[in-house]
Amino acid sequence: MVLNTNLISIEEVVGEVQGSSLDNFEQFIRWVDSRMMLNPAAGESLREVHESVNASVRNGDPTPFKRFRRQEFICTMERMGNMPDATPADELLEEEITITEEVYELALWLNERNVLLLCLSDKPDEASCPHPRVSPELPPLHEAVTHRVGTSIEEQLARF
User: Fold this and answer.
1) Residue 55: left if φ>0, alpha if ψ -120 to 50, beta else—which one?
2) Which of 23, 52, 56, 147 has the most CB atoms lying inside 10 A of its own CB?
3) Residue 149 forms beta bridges with which residues?
């Protein structure tokens, strides 16, 4: 939104990041604050959103647009494991969020060897976990079951 209102240009953001003077979100928020003070008319359309984000960050919760993120979670879950198991792979790839067979088998192989498996995501909780009042029937995103698409590693090795 900051870029769309021309309050700060993409070239300025890139320059600040490359120059190492902008390296975290709180700095960006302060930068936007100062630009909005210098040019109040340019930032008028995003003032309410910016103030909301700023307040959330100060309260330790940087996730804006929580309702949107909750809907994102529901839409994501609707695209996982929703088609019949006999659906051809090309259709699954068009309509579902899938996991590759190779990644699945590798995770199983590592798990069998007691390797600690960690997954990281930049998705906020609202986009990756069910809300108790909005979608309590859904599992968290990391527990969702979906189809696997790809070739088995064992099958590949057996050919050699």
Assistant:
1) alpha
2) 147
3) 100
